[in-house]
Design a protein that fits this description.
heterodimer; A: mainly beta; 4-stranded antiparallel sheet; elongated; B: alpha+beta; Umud Fragment, subunit A; 7-stranded antiparallel sheet; 4 helices; membrane (chain A); signal-anchor (chain A)
Chain lengths: 141, 180
């Protein structure tokens, strides 16, 4: 699947706050057979989340969940979302977003069975996004 | 049919030796259960390898009374999306929520933020005053598997002590009287 993103950063007193809008097109398939859909007899729901992963001077690894969704058994396992805004504030722990060239967005999901193991699956395909070198002074959000 | 009181006659018929034997049997069962529990603690690395979900903050995935199986291996890094069971300093009751944000330093120190699936806001309001992040030391374990409903028994036993005593009494009676 692929995502298209436009972004700009906003100034904050102490830490960087990033704004991202995104599209998601995804087909959630069964791990074992790519042709079967994920909702078999033992899958109660999927917890989907879009996370941004990046490194900064302060921190070797940062992961921030931007958006999540609960998909219940019976829902269509295809996603076709456009112009989504992040659900949660994308604050960095510091000022590591400015000029950060490599923010990787990935879609993952937690499979919740009726009973049994709780696996975390990462979707194949991800998008790298750069943040600009300057802050935005006007919020066109 | 009503519970007959024949077993009381059985108990009287048992001589001292048989009674001691049954008590030892009971002790063995209890010790074996404790050993299995300790073994689970070692294998999973968690001080509490099995926990009961107490609130509805993770619905619709987990409901009150569901049982969660945890691991807490030091090698497993904390990553977003994972379901963690953590304790807030000074509070006894562990909380089961999902990791929303992590910031990990080059030396491996990690601080993270959690949120219940069914909650509108993250857990910052739940943490200790002045505490903005959780750390590895606050984690009891990571949820790896679950079984629904079974934990209701422990919730009932907690909320209704009479029920707990009744269960223990019946168990004790059963073991003492059961002829093997």
């Amino acid at each position: 699947f692929r995502k298209n993103v436009e972004d700009f950063t906003g100034p904050r007193e102490r830490s960087d706050l990033g704004f991202i809008t995104f599209d998601i097109t995804a087909d959630i398939l069964n791990e074992k057979s790519y042709l079967e859909i994920i909702f078999d007899w033992n899958v109660k729901q999927l917890f989907l989340y879009l996370s941004a992963e990046y490194s900064t001077k302060n921190n070797a690894l940062n992961q921030v969940v931007l958006w999540d969704k609960i998909m219940l058994r019976g829902d269509n396992p295809r996603l076709f979302l456009k112009d989504m805004k992040s659900k949660y504030f994308f604050f960095d722990d510091g000022n590591g977003l400015k000029g950060n060239r490599n923010i990787t967005l990935t879609l993952s999901w937690n499979v919740v069975p009726n009973a049994g193991i709780l696996p975390l699956v990462t979707g194949s395909g991800h998008v790298s996004v750069p943040f600009p070198d300057t802050y935005e002074t006007t919020k066109s959000y | 049919a009503m519970l007959s009181l024949d077993f009381l006659d059985d108990v009287r018929r048992m001589n001292k030796r048989q009674l001691y034997y049954q008590v030892l049997n009971f002790g063995m069962i209890v010790s074996s259960a404790l050993m299995i529990w300790k073994g689970l603690m070692v294998v999973t690395g968690s001080e509490s390898p099995i926990v009961v979900v107490l609130s509805g903050s993770m619905e619709p995935a987990f409901h009150r009374g569901d049982l969660l199986f945890l691991t807490n291996r030091v090698e497993d890094p904390i990553r977003v999306g994972e379901i963690v069971v953590f304790r807030i300093e000074g509070r006894e009751i562990p909380i089961v929520h999902r990791v929303l944000k992590i910031h990990e330093k080059h030396n491996g120190d990690v601080k993270f933020l959690t949120k219940g699936d069914n909650n509108a806001v993250d857990d910052r309001g739940l943490y200790k005053r002045g505490q903005h992040w959780l750390e590895k030391k606050d984690v009891v374990g990571r949820a790896r598997g679950f079984v629904p409903y079974i934990g209701i028994v422990t919730i009932l036993m907690n909320d209704y002590p009479k029920f707990k005593y009744a269960v223990l009494f019946l168990l004790g009676l059963f073991v003492l009287v059961h002829r093997e």
